[in-house]
Amino acid sequence: MKYTETLNYLYTMLPMYQRTGPAAYKDNLDNTILLDNYYENPHEKFRTIHVAGTNGKGSVSHMLAAVFQKAGYKTGLYTSPHLKDFRERIRINGVMIPKNEIVQWVENFRINNELWKIEPSFFELTVALAFDYFARGKVDIAIVEVGLGGRLDSTNIIRPEVSVITNIGLDHVALLGDSIEKIAAEKGGIIKPGVPVVVGKKQKETGPVFMDIATKTGSEIFFADQEYKIPYSMQDLSGKQVMKVEKNGGMFFEQLKLDLLGLYQLENLPAVLKTIELMQQKGWLLSDENILDGLSDAAQLTGLMGRWQIIGANPKMVCDTAHNADGISQIVRQIEQTPFENLHIVFGMVNDKEPEKVLSLLPQNATFYFTKANIPRALDEKVLKAKALKFGFKGESYSSVFEALNQAQKKAGENDLIYVGGSTFVVAEIL
Q1: Which runs of consecutive H residues, i.e. helices, occur in 242-287?
Q2: How much is the mean pLDDT over the chain?
Q3: What class of enzyme is it (predicted)?
């Protein structure tokens, strides 16, 4: 097979949640365990950190990977979904898995599966590929991001050095539960017996859930935001965020730079720092210099995209993959602190979210360009516009992301702001 044929097999022949939604979701680990056994349990051949959460888990995973890379460890990174290239999901030291590696592995799987007769989902097979690649690549450690939920996620066969859970919000309610507490219980499913767990943010609804799971599993639990505080953040001339970091009331880093923009990174960073602290206690050699250098160049080292990413100037154009109520509320806060004359929002969603909840958070002082990504899950742009008009928004609908962005660019002045978001897949198309 050629690489394009391999991708076609992965995207169209296997159930894929990102494209088709809940129909592709598996509520058990049966296929994952079968695949892991057939590949001789590759997940047991390297150390891991497991990262779950509603928002922020991708940023936390990339920041951790950057620090380990700077410390000289051969570092695997597994994340999802990808934005531009399937290979973004699987990296070693920031370098994407080679195309020929994917082609050969998938071809071998298809041959072997004539005997195995497994019917994996896209995600199940991708996890198996990643773990096998990391094992054969002899990584020192892999940062593994949960795909969806935690308890039944295909990544949840690992026994990590540390489990990390970022903030919890209402998302994927049809699969994970219709309350914060139920969703927290699913995310908390990554907590393993005797493995310390770092929770990024102590929330009223989720704190007791995580503490109960940790007590039952004998896992030490830490709420990172109770120890690490970031009083302020500003942007320097190079475009990086500069932060003062305190720990337990005292100075920790007087000036920490981060090349990931967005004020929400101030909520993600405590989880990163607490995880690093626990890893240091386990004997991993991670110096202050490694931390500062890694975080300063995190996006560059790991290839992270789509987090308050500036993609144009005059007018300023920004995209972000935030796609649920918690994420969008952070984006609105960021927009409020961004100078502009007029605001233009290119916006699309998927059809298994709750658009009314998200739309109710968006600013009224904007011109909207409602659109849809080119995937089956995309919410029809006319339906999205009709729902938005009930909230008093003004704007038109466009059948493609490119058309919507093109119209926004035509109408925007050089001192205006164009924001592109609402769905990971909308951002993927413009990148």
Answers
A1: 265-281
A2: 93
A3: ligase
Global pTM value: 0.93
pLDDT class of 353 with cuts at 50, 70, 90 = confident
278 and 329 housed in the same domain: no
Residue 309 parent element (H or E): strand 309-312
DSSP 11: I
Task: Give the residue numbers spanning the domain of 368.
Answer: 309-430
Whichever domain contains 329, its CATH number is 3.90.190.20
Structure-token pair, residue 283: 């004997």
| Final residue of a structural domain among 251, 272, 302 | 302
Mean pLDDT of 233-261: 93
Structure tokens at 6: 């391999």
Q: For residues 135 and 103, give the distance between their C-alpha atoms in angstroms, rounded to a whole number.
A: 18
In this structure, what are the phi and psi dihedrals at residue 190, rounded to the nearest 5 degrees? -85, -10
Q: How confident is the model at residue 168 (pLDDT cuts 50, 70, 90)?
A: confident
Question: Residue 352: pLDDT above 80?
Answer: no
Structural domain count, the chain: 2
Q: Given 286, 302, 318, which residue is the final one in a domain?
A: 302
pLDDT in tens, 250-297: 999 999 999 999 889 999 999 999 999 999 999 999 999 999 999 999
Mean pLDDT of 40-63: 96
Residues 295 and 317 in one domain: no
- Kindly compute the dihedral angle of the four CA atoms of residues 197, 285, 129, 34, in this order, to the nearest 10 degrees: -50
Task: Check: CB of residue 366 under 8 Å from CB of residue 9.
Answer: no
Kindly state whether residues 30 and 150 are assigned to the same domain. yes
Work out the angle between the directed axes of helices 265-281 and 57-70 (0-180°, nearest 10): 50
